[in-house]
Structure formats: C-alpha cells, structure tokens
Amino acid sequence: MKKMINQHPSRYAKVFLAMLPFLIVIGLYLVASDARLSENPNDKLLPAFSSFVDSMERMAFEPNKRSGDYLLWTDTLASLQRLLMGVIISALIGLSFGLLNGALPFARAPLSPFVTAISLIPPMAILPILFIVFGLGELAKVALIVIGIAPLLIRDMQQRVLEIPTEQIIKAQTLGANSWQIMIRIMLPQIMPRLLAAVRLALGSAWLFLIAAEAVASTDGLGYRIFLVRRYMAMDVILPYVLWITFLAFCIDWTLRRISLWAWPWFHSAQPDSGASS
Amino acid sequence: MSYIEFNKVWKEYPGQVVLERLNAKVDEGEFITIVGASGCGKTTFLNMLLGTETHTRGKIMLAGSEISQEPDDSRGIVFQRYSVFPHLSVLENVIVAREFQQSPLLTRLFGKAKQQAKQEAKELLDAVGLAASEDKYPHELSGGMQQRLALAQSLINKPKVLLLDEPFGALDPGIRSDMHALVLSLWRKHKLTIFMITHDLKEGFYLGTRLWVFDKVRHDPQAPGAYGAKITYDIPTGQCETDVLEKIQGSFTDTSTSTH
C-alpha cells in the first residue's frame, strides 16, 4: 500500500471525482425542493427545476410586457459592457503606471506610497461619493470597478517589473538601450502575461463591485435584476441568474487563459506553475 | 598611454575598505583573468568597470577618457545567469542589440536594416554554434547554450571591453572546456579586450594573457574591514613556475573553501 500522498486517481476516476460535488449538491437540492413542494406547492424558497426553465424562457425568449425587451439579454449586455469597460480601463492604468513605477525610481518615489494608500480605501465606502460626483449613470459604476481594482493591478505590475533580474536590465544597457527602450522592449513584454494573470484574479472583485453598484442604483443589469426580484422572493429567477453570471465569469477567465497561452508560450513553458493548468 | 588605466583606485564602504590603491595598466587585446577568495572584491572590481558601482577615489581611464559611471555599450557583460531575455527567441535576442542602437524610439528595424541585422546576427550565432537553434526560446536551451547566446549578444555591438563574471561557473566541466575554446576563438577573431572572473585557477591560467590575484595584504584582526584587497599577483600566463601557482593557491583557498 502506497502512502496517501503518492496515490493518484486514474483519468476516469478524476473526471468522476470532479463531478461528484456538483452531483451531490444538485441531488440535495432536488430532495429538499421536493420535500418542501409536497408540503406547500406554492413554496418559493426552493423551486423545482421546471420553474427555472419556465422563468428563464420568459426572461430570455419573450419580450417583457412593459418594456418589450428580452430582459436576460439586455441585462447581460448592460452588465458586460460595464464590467469590460471597467476591467479594460483598469488594466491599462495598471500596466502603464505599474511599468512607470517599476522602471523609474523617480516615478516610484512619489507614486508608490500614494497608490498603496489608495488601494487601502474600501471601494464600497466611497460608492456614495461616486454617485454624488458622477451621477447615477454608467460612469459611476465603471468608476467603482476602476477604483476597486486598478490600484491593486498597479501594485502588482510594479512588483513584477521589479522582479525582473537586474542582470537583464544591466545587459540591455550594455547593448546600448536607453530607459525608454528598456521599458518597451524588455519590461513591457515580460509583464504582459503577468498582467493577464492579475486581471484574471481581479475579475472576481470586478464582478463584486459591478453587482453592488447595480444593486444600489440602476435600471438594468444582472445585479439590478437579482435585487429587483428579491422583493417577490423570486428564487426561480435569482438562482438561474447566479448560474448565468458564474458561467459568464468562467467564459471570460477561460478566454483570458487561452489568449495568454497563445500569445506568450515562452512564459507558460518556462514557468510550469504560472497558470498552464489553473 | 595604455588602453585601460587604474590610477590609485579605492573602493570604500562606511567602515569597510574593499579595494585599496589599485594601480594597473592594460593594453588593448589583453585577456585578463581574475581570481581571489570570495568577498575579496573581485566582483566589486568588475562592477566598477561595468559602471554599476562607483570607485570612491582615484581614476579609471578607458581609451583615453574617464570610464562612464553607468553601464553603456562601451563595455559588454556576460553574467553567470540571467544574461539573456526570456521573451525573445535566440535570433531576436541578438538582433535586439542592433535595434537598441539604431532605433532609439520604436526599437524596431524594418526592411534593409532588419535584413542586415539578421545577417550579422546569424553569422554570430553560427560562430558560437547556435545556428540550428535560432528560433528557440532561451528556456529551451541548456545552460551552456544560454551562455553561448549571451556571448553572441554581447559581441554584435563590438564593445571596447568584454567583462565575464564567472560565465562558466554554473556549467558542467565537459561543457566548460568547449566554452574555453569558444571564448579563445572569439577573443582572437574579434580582437577583444577581456576581463574574466573565475573561481577556477586552472581556467585562469589556461585562458588569459595575464592572471590577476586579488587578496588582502594587510590584516587587522581587531578590525576586519580596515584594509582592502589589492592585486597581489600580476602574472603573464604561460611563463609561470609551478611553485608560484601553489603559493597563489595557498593564499586564497583557505578563505574561499571556508565560505563555500
């Protein structure tokens, strides 16, 4: 008998074991839902799967009676627009300021402590300020995402630049490179894959800020819808929406990982622990 | 006047003298190997030549003018590790040096200039034995091949001085002798002036035209930092008696073995 730490499941066992927790949760839900519904057919807390299908059919494929919109799709579009805008702007800010801070001591000296201080502000605490300053429109929601994740991205990128071995920077200088050339040819390409990895991690927070902002003040969006139908305890809408958000998050993460693997093969094969399998 | 001159050069840190009163003259085309105990200041010496550290007193002259106090393209370097750029292919690693020199803003060459840079890079890669690997990335190369690439990279811009900081220290002995042959052939072909730090006394004697030994002449047991190292032996190699070799060996192996 081998020690536990040396025992590995076979390929099929692995697939089965990966599915097992999902199956257990679904099974438990079905049993509990069935038990409650048999006592009270109007129970709203744990609706049957058939009512999920009904309500999603209504949300996705029938125009809303009041507005004429297909709500699931207008919500998804609105939320994704805000999310992607916020994340892309944050990534650009993180990349440029991180690169600047990492490369130039005279940029780092004033900016690094400032960015650290900003990153410690709880973003949700200044959400009211954003609504006051930017109004209740799109800008405030995008701004919340940017304020929430850009400082962390800046700090991460700065750290990544500083982690590049000094030997490389000195070598580039002996090859005749000036500061600008070192930044765009040596540092920038080496932190690009790390930016994508950092963005993948930051997406979780980005969704959090998005849904929070939508819940507080909005007229459409996935977060808005969930909080709206909460008043009617419409679990048959909330649960499928949560699954849908999870699926969208998974798709974005998967796409970013694919892009990284395709664009920077040297990064993933040189560092087996850097996300090839995560 | 000599090509490189050290005139009463000192290097001091607060409370510690690293190097004291170095005087030396080096002609163009010399190959100087440097040995010495760990912590005796040979890397500090090389860093002063490179420009990453500044001497505190005296003057270092290179080709008639004072040596610049930051790294630039007058001096090439090959470190023990991390000398190549991991995100560029082997060929790009060499071409990028040309692009640094000729395209200050975009750092990209196009058309004819690119073709010419490519041609030169390929010749250099051929000379170091990497012609077949030009499309690979550094992580696909062995340690010895990475050092070959680092050498090719340093040579494309024709530096006045080539500095080697234990370039073969991390390589297997078998590969090392191949690298010795390569360095000697490059040195002759490109008429380089080389300073090379090594831990291996045999390597030092075999490669250079001159061997320098760095060691402390004076010791104060109460204040270990009071005196710095000097060049205690300056030997034209090839004309050396065995007992001198043993004496040098004895003068620094005690300290160096204890620190390893």
Amount of beta strand of chain A: under 5%
Radius of gyration of chain B: 19 Å
Query: Structural class of the secondary elements of chain B?
Result: alpha/beta
Counted beta strands of chain A: 0
Q: How would you sum up the global shape of chain A?
A: globular
Q: Distance between termini of chain B?
A: 40 Å
Cα(first) to Cα(last) distance of chain A is 30 Å
Q: Going across the biggest sheet of chain B, name each strand in turn.
A: 6-7-8-3-9-10
What oligomeric state best describes the polypeptide chains here? heterodimer
How can the largest sheet of chain B be summarized? 6 strands, mixed
How is the main sheet of chain A built? none
Question: What value does the Rg of chain A take, in angstroms?
Answer: 24 Å
How would you classify the helix and strand content of chain A by structural class?
mainly alpha
Strand content of chain B: 15-25%
Q: Largest chain-chain contact?
A: A-B, 25 and 35 residues
Low-confidence stretches of chain A: 273-278
- Helix-strand sequence of chain B: EEEHEEEHHHEHEHEEH
Helix content of chain B: 25-40%
Spans where pLDDT lies below 50 across 5 or more residues of chain B: 253-260
How many separate helices of chain B? 7
- The number of distinct β-strands of chain B equals 10
